[in-house]
Amino acid sequence: MIRFENVGLRYGMGTEVLRDVSFFLQERSFQFLSGPSGTGKTTLLRLLFLSLKPTRGLITIFGKDRSRITREELPLIRRRIGIVFQDFRLLDHLTTYENVALPLRVRGREEASYRSDVVELLKWVGLGDRMHVFPPVLSGGEKQRAAIARALIEQPQILLADEPTGNVDPQLARRLLRLLIELNRLGTAVVIATHDIGLMEQVDARRMILSGGRLEIYD
């Protein structure tokens, strides 16, 4: 679905944050993205989500050259990519249900057409009894599951998760990991950016390690 060929990225006139990065993501694949802080993991996720353009190299996504994707095409392609941010980015004035439904509301869909889907998804992530609660009342793990549900509501082909277990205890981290594994079994490709070596050891999955801006892959 996605291919990077000798991709490099620098901010302004600084040194390159990513250097000659090459890899591909297959349908229904599961992989971890790891490496020390400051090595470019979040930058790589932003390239995958099309919120950044590379300084050099070629990115092909769903058969399209990234450099030729128009402003009008971007929203349609991004709907095929879900992303869970490390800081959740839930809106405090909206309920859990409203936060998860927000991407569909923004697209102009009527609530009657999606209400049952949102309710079912919230039950699937274990928040069926927290639908009408506002984010400040939710625990860290509940916020994380709400963020995952929001990323999934448009049924993306790829889910990008930036440190999804970074703010929860080990038991909840394992539960979140099982949730992402089940999602992958249902057909969504998953990329998890994490520092947690113990988490990665729980799954026999591809590891992509960033170091000094360069990427090494261990299948």
Quaternary organisation of the protein chains: single chain
* Order of adjacent strands in the largest pleated sheet: 6-7-8-3-9-10
Total DSSP E strands: 10
Tell me the overall shape.
Answer: globular
Discrete helix count:
7
Helix percent band: 25-40%
Unreliable residue stretches: none
Describe the biggest sheet?
A: 6 strands, mixed
- Rg computed from alpha carbons, rounded to a whole number of angstroms: 17 Å
Characterize this entry briefly.
The chain is of the alpha/beta class and 219 residues long. It is built from seven helices and ten strands.
Sequence-ordered SSE layout with sheet pairings:
Blueprint: E1 2-10, E2 16-25, E3 30-34, H1 41-48, E4 56-61, E5 64-65, H2 74-78, E6 81-84, H3 96-106, H4 111-124, H5 140-152, E7 158-162, H6 170-185, E8 189-193, H7 197-200, E9 206-211, E10 214-218
Parallel strand pairs: 3-8, 3-9, 6-7, 7-8
Antiparallel strand pairs: 1-2, 1-4, 4-5, 9-10
Helix pairs in contact: 3-4, 3-5
